[in-house]
Amino acid sequence: MNLKSFLNPVQVNECKVVISDRFIDDNGSPEKWTISPITSSEDASLRKDCTRKVPVVGKKGVYIPELDTEMYFKRLITACVKEPNLNLKELQDGYSVMSAEELIGKMLMPGEYSELQTKVLEINGFKNDIELMDEAKNF
């Protein structure tokens, strides 16, 4: 084993992808979205923020952690999307929302959202969303 391999991993850079043909630039071409990966520490923080304690049925006073996967995916996506800037007030005002998570839900149609989610999972090293869903259930 070569220690150098672990000290100098191949860097995963941001990528630019077309998520929708509905957002057109001045030249008539679809706008590309810029997506960057997050670190494992950032992911852990997202998971923690999206986890709540729920009561165990039939066991009074006993709670277990449960990941709100819908909120987790929204926050993961908004953490990874760099362009367009989903936190830009003018963009949020244009869709009458007050958060990046709400904005992404209003901006994109279901298939577009699914495409963006897939790209975000890929750039973060998840083989597919089934793997992530299994991890989310076991969190």
Descriptive keywords:
139 residues, flat, two-stranded antiparallel sheet, three-stranded antiparallel sheet, 47% helix, 7 helices
Describe this structure in words.
The protein is α+β, with helices and mostly antiparallel strands and 139 residues long. Helix content is 47%, strand content 15%. The protein is built from 7 helices and 5 strands. It has helices at residues 3-7, 40-49, 69-80, 89-94, 100-107, 110-123, 129-138, and strands at residues 15-18, 32-35, 51-55, 63-67, 81-83. The strands form 2 sheets. The chain has a 3-stranded antiparallel β-sheet with strand order 1-2-5. Strands 3-4 form a two-stranded antiparallel sheet. A hairpin with a 7-residue loop joins strand 3 (51-55) and strand 4. Helix 3 (69-80) crosses helix 5. The two termini are 31 Å apart. The relative contact order is 0.15. The mean pLDDT is 89.
User: How many helical elements?
Assistant: 7
Number of strands: 5
Q: Major sheet, described briefly? A: 3 strands, antiparallel
Q: Looking at the structure, what is the overall shape?
A: flat
Spans with pLDDT under 50 lasting ≥5 residues? none
Mean pLDDT: 89
Strand order, sheet with most strands: 1-2-5
Q: Which structural class fits the helix and strand makeup?
A: alpha+beta
Give me the strand/helix succession.
HEEHEEHEHHHH
Radius of gyration: 18 Å
Give a brief description:
The protein has helices at residues 3-7, 40-49, 69-80, 89-94, 100-107, 110-123, 129-138, and strands spanning 15-18, 32-35, 51-55, 63-67, 81-83. The chain is of the alpha+beta class. The strands form two sheets. It has a three-stranded antiparallel beta sheet. A two-stranded antiparallel sheet has the order 3-4.
